[in-house]
Protein: Pyrin domain-containing protein
Organism: Electrophorus voltai
Amino acid sequence: MANIKEHLLDTLEELVTQDLKTFQWHLTNSAEDKHIPKSRLEKADRHDTVDYIVQTYGPNGAVELILAILEKMNNQLAEELRTKVKNTKFNISKQLKPIVRRSKPLLKQVRTWPAGAISALQDCFEQTTWITFKEAATDGGTVNPEEYTALVTGYISKCIDDVTVSKTITTRPNQKPWMPAEVRMLLKTRDSAFRTGNREALRKTRAKLSHVIREAKRVHAQRIHGHFKDTGDTRRMWAGIQAITNYRKTSPSCDSDATLPDALNDFYARFEAQNNVAAEKSIPPQNDQVLCLTASDVRHTLRGVNPQKAAGPDDIPGRVLRECADQLADVLTDIFNISLNCTMVPTCFKITTIVPVPK
């Protein structure tokens, strides 16, 4: 530690009074999270300056900061200090650099709905000839409900992809909930102005950044307060609590051991070990009337779908089923009735996504 401080002190002693003032100005206007107050450096000599830098940034951070400032000043002392640090017997990167646990940013693919996307989707479905899919799934006068359903759901997903926009969002563990894109852009502009040494641009950017941060915090506070205005809306209340506590859902980790499903299957299959009767499909009586759905019933059910719920394995959002209920009611009614008549449920209707919730 003493050798590092001696190297820093020797470097500052090479600066003349005017260069030392310039160095201290850069020090108080650095883009680092920590700052040394200007009042401390007003009457500080070279020894005090070195002590303040090491106390604030640590030995390793002090070396990196002084090197960066000297390079901005186009001072040849930066190269001399770098050489001294390399020749010192202390390994700064291993002994003096604090251990920081860093988490990688997470990339998330989200689907956004531009203005007019639902209207375009409704027009697309109204102009669709759904009988074409039924004819394609008919073989020998018999409609295959499995193929019929797959064609219809695949077409709906394709239309959704055509009217929506997929974006990749980067989320970081230390990302503030109140920080919009404008603040992040101004932070980059401030850092760029500091690196180039443009004092006027740095001053204006800092002033604008301070104003934008205050406004962003005010808007975020109003948004949080809005969650608790209606005490009967528990969904909004829980969303407000999650925003206050900065709660983030973490995906439960699944066991990579492929033998677990087989072990569970063997455990539950032991109850059927003595059952030697083969499964047979029951034939309904001749006088039994098959359940038949109407388009109005299906339309009413689709309009009651909660758009806040996540989409299933078919990746058709509940928002589409609800907003396009009038356009999809007829074709879905036809699929349901064919499935009931054939006493066979399509595979895509039997697949679900199960998320375990640890207790």
